[in-house]
Amino acid sequence: MRKTAAVGIAAALSVAAAGCGSSGSDKSVVTLWMYPVISDQAKSQAYWGKVEKDFEAQNPTVDLKVDLQPWEGRQEKVTTALISKKGFDLVVLGPDQIPQYAQQGTIEPVDDVVAADKTSYLPNSLSALTVNGKLYGVPIYQTITAPIYNKKLFTEAGVEAPRTLAELKAAAPKLAAKKVAVLDYPGKPEVSLNQSFYPLLWANGGSVFAPDGKSVAFNGPEGVESLQLLLDLKAAGGLPENAASKGNDIEGGPLAAGKTAMYHAATALQAVQLGTAVGAENVGIGLPLEGSKRVAFGIPGALVLAGHSGQKDAARKFASFLASPQQAAQLAKESGFFPARTDVTVPDQSAEAKEFAKSLQYAFPGDTHPKARQVMGVLAPHIQAALLGKEDARTALDAAAKEADTLLSSGS
Fold it and tell me: Which of 274, 297, 310 lies closest to 153, judged by CA?
């Protein structure tokens, strides 16, 4: 058995080993590029070392190698590995990354891996990883976001925590009278729109792309309504003064300082951080804010099979192993994420996590598209401009749409 590699060193070793398909014996070598889904490095190495040991005990003809990679530079490294046909047999990716690789033909469908247990997976987890009717990832965990509240601030303002976008708007002036902004909106362009603007757009029934994917749709009526909501909140004192440039960090931010009352797209970890700052008894966790529907940003993390792998059968066997209920439960326990399956009970799950799990049924991975990230980069500065008062909602979104449509038609 090869011990789990340290971060950084593993990358170089894996490239050298990739493609050979043998460890100098009769064993098949399967290399997985894994990322810090378990944030504590020591715990991560221990966990993946045990995964190697347990899988190899059940499959003595396979030498499993888990290379722990950093999040930084992931997209570039994975793209290079797939193009050069070196580096890994399996890699963990999200739904927004998969379409471009499926389009290129550099990854393999894995429908057969989940076929026997298909009904045991969250439907949203599977649909998020499906491109043109084929499944390109085996879900091993699921993330979810939900609103978190400082209950004390709402009580002091004499208003209930909002459950809908309309209630959010109505609460703004009442909290502003107490010198509290109702929404801790992170308008900094570097913050993913999946955790800022898009949840509002989706709740209002909008989408980022047109159905054919050849143009954007975020400047439709739903998008204008969503951005106007933010501008109305700002006018009512419902956003922090620096909303256009602030990130979504809880620690050291206005939510922890009691200057804002809620964040609409938080993670379970952020709920814990807020509890540390204001007292766990003052933290509320709600369902996604409802407009015309409820939508929560949440993505599956999935094992993706490289098209160039010389050990596809062994790789599929490991994917099935890691996606099993037993392994899914342990990974959820160690990572703080959620199982992508409905037949899993997570050991010692926190009270906060149990509340967040209620939003899994509303999980949406975002509008997947090969250029989703580039479009996000085009749109975010225009939303910031609107928050700064430089553009109105319609002008901002139309200008962003014009740039985005040019990007989509460029073919690059």
Answer: 274
For 292-308, the pLDDT digits (tens) are: 999 999 999 999 999 99
Residue 124, SS3 per DSSP: helix
**Burial bucket for residue 79 (CB in 10 Å: 0-12, 13-18, 19+):** middle
Identify whether the C-beta of residue 240 lies closer than 8 Å to the C-beta of residue 330. Answer: no
First to last CA, the chain: 43
Strand partners, 338: 142
- C-alpha pair distances (Å), 68 with each of 7, 34, 44, 223: 5, 5, 9, 39
SS3 170: helix
Instruction: Give the global pTM.
Output: 0.85
Total count of residues recorded for the chain: 412
- Burial environment of residue 58 by CB neighbours within 10 A (0 to 12, 13 to 18, 19 or more): exposed
What is the per-residue pLDDT across 54-110, written as a single tens digit (0 to 9) for each? 999 999 999 999 999 999 999 999 999 999 999 999 999 999 889 889 999 999 999
> What CA–CA distance (Å, rounded) separates 305 from 326?
22
d(CA 339, CA 356): 12
